[in-house]
Amino acid sequence: HLPTSGPHGPSSCFLRIRADGAVDCARGQSAHSLVEIRAVALRKVAIKGVHSALYLCMEGDGRMLGLPQFSPEDCAFEEEIRPDGYNVYRSQKHQLPVSLSSARQRQLFKARGFLPLSHFLPMLPSSPAEPVHRERPSEPDAFSSPLETDSMDPFGIANNLRLVKSPSFQE
Fold this sequence. Notes:
By secondary structure, the chain is mostly beta strands. The chain has helices spanning 72-75, 103-110, 157-161; strands spanning 3-6, 9-17, 23-26, 35-41, 44-49, 55-58, 64-67, 76-81, 87-91, 96-97. The protein has a 5-stranded antiparallel beta sheet with strand order 4-5-8-9-10. It has a 3-stranded antiparallel beta sheet with strand order 1-2-3, with no helix packed on it. A two-stranded antiparallel ribbon has the order 6-7. A hairpin with a 4-residue loop joins strand 9 and strand 10. The chain is globular and about 40 Å long.
C-alpha cells in the first residue's frame, strides 16, 4: 500500500487504481489500494494495482491514470527514497512527481517545486489480501511471477542479468 503524507505527517490517504482507470485517494487500506511495485530498470519502478490489474501511468499534465498495458515512457517512475523514509516517484518524461493532488492543487504548487500528496510511505497490508476477482481475463505480463520476499533478489533482476556471480544470489 502507498499511503501519502500531508503537510502534518502521514494521512489516511492511500493511492488506489480503480478498475475504470481512475486513480484516486482511498481513505483506508483495502484490497483496492493494494499495489505491486516492481523494478523495471535501474532506479525505475512500475506500480500496478493488484485488484484492478492496471498500471499507474501519467499524462502530460501530471494527471494519473490506470492503463492495462505498461508503457516505459508513461508508466515507469524514478524512485527517490528520501532521508525521512518517504518515497517520491517521478516521471522522467513529464518531470512531475506522482501526486494524488487535484488539477487545481497541481497548478498552484507547480511553481513551488513540490506537489502536495506526493510523498509516499510504502507499507505492507495490515491484513491478508482478499482474493482478487478480475473482470477481464488476465494476460501474461511483467508482474505474473510471485514476489520472492525472502530472497536477496526479490524482483529477479540479478537472475535476468546472469552476470552476477555473488554467493548471495545462488539458489
